[in-house]
Write a structure and sequence with these properties.
The chain has 369 residues and is α/β, with parallel strands linked by helices. Helices cover 42% and strands 19% of the residues. A hairpin with a 3-residue loop joins strand 8 and strand 9.
Amino acid sequence: MLSAGIVGLPNVGKSTLFNAVTRTRKAQAANYPFCTIDPNVGVVTVPDSRLSKLAAIESSQKIIPAAIEFVDIAGLVKGASQGEGLGNQFLAAIREVTAIVQVVRCFEDSNVHHVAGSVDPVRDIEVVTTELILSDLNTVQKRTDRAAKGARGNDKAAALELAILQKLEPHLNAGKPALLLDWTDEEKTIVKGLCLLTSKPTLFACNVKESELVQGDKNPYVQKVREYVKAHHDTEAVVISAQIEAELIDLSPEESTEFLKDLGVEESGVSALIRAAYKLLGLQTYFTLGPKECRAWTIHVGDKGPAAAGVIHTDFERGYIAAETTYCDDLIALGSFAKAREAGKLRLEGKEYVVKDGDVMEFRFNVTK
C-alpha cells in the first residue's frame, strides 16, 4: 500500500492531525517537542461520495472504499541531517514513505510552544526542506565517488549515473528539491534508486485555529504558504484545523456533519487532505459493482485495462480480454446497467484502454494453464 508521511517541526500538530486522519488516538499529542518517537501507522479510507450512489443501484450488501496509509513521523529540528534531535530516525522514516504531508503551524497561541519561539510557517518549511536537501547532498556525494570510479572503467550505467549526480548536486546546492528536475524515463529509474528525500511528492497542510477555519483562505500565514510552495515546490497547500479534527474523532458521521455545519463548514479539512494526498501520489479510482459489494480500486493515473484488472488478481491481468466499462456519473444518472447499455454508455474496452477515474468496470479474462 502506498503511504504518506506526516512531517514537520516538533509541536505543530502532526500527531493531532494523524489521530484525526486515522480516527484513532494511537499517536500521543502533547505540548512539548519530540512527543512522537516511533512512527505511528494508520490505514485511511479515501472519502468518495460516488460509492453510496453506485451501491444503491445494485443494492450492494457491502461498500469498500479505497485506502492509503498515513505515517506520523517524529518532529524534525535544524541539524537533523547531522543527527540532531531525532534526526536520524526522522530521515529514515521519511525514506520509507511514498509521499510527504508537511504540517505547518499557521496560528498564534501563547499557550502552545513553538520550537523556534515564534510563528513563521515559511521559515519552518525552509528548515525542513534544508535538512532533507542536506541529507540528499550527502547521498549524492557518496554515490558520485563510486559512479566516477565505474565511469573511468567504461561502465555505461555508471557513466549515466554520474551524469545524473553531477546534474543533481548544483541543483540541490541551490536549495531546490530534486523533484523539480526533469528526467528521461531511463534517468527516472536511476534517480528512483537513489531514494532521495526531496524527490518525494510533497503536500502542505496549513494548521489553523478552530475559529479561523471558515475563513482559512484569508489567513495571512496560509496565503504566504500557498505563494511560497507554489513558487518553490510546485505543489499545493490545504487548510486544516487539527483542533477541530480532534473533536470529531469520537463523533458519528451524522454528529460530525452537524458539528461542522454549526461552524459554517461543509466538510472536514481532513477529507480534503486525504483526497489531496491520494492525488499527490498519482492515484485514481475505478469501481466494481454487484449485489455483494461495491468497491473502489486504487490504480495509478495512466494505467491501462490489464494493469487495472491486476489489482484485483494477477490472473485477471494475465488473461485479460476486455472490460465492460461505463462512467460512474452516467450509470448513476441512468440508474441501471441495462439502461446504460440501451443509451450506448456501456462499452467494451481492450488492452490499450487507459482507465479513467470513475470508470465502472467488469473484466472478461481467460487463463489457460
